Amino acid sequence: MKSFLTIITVIFVSTFIFGQSSQVKYHIKSGIIEYEISGASKGKEVVYFDNYGIKEAKYSNQEIDMMGIKQKTNQIIISDSEYIYTLDVDKKTGTKMKNPFLGSMPEDKNLEELGKEIMTNMGGKVIGSETLLGKTCEIWEVSQLSAKIWVWNTVPLKTEVNMMGMKIVSNATKFEPNANVPKEKFVVPDAYTITESSFPGAFEEN
Question: 2-196 adopts what CATH topology?
Answer without folding.
Answer: outer membrane lipoprotein receptor (LolB), chain A (2.50.20)
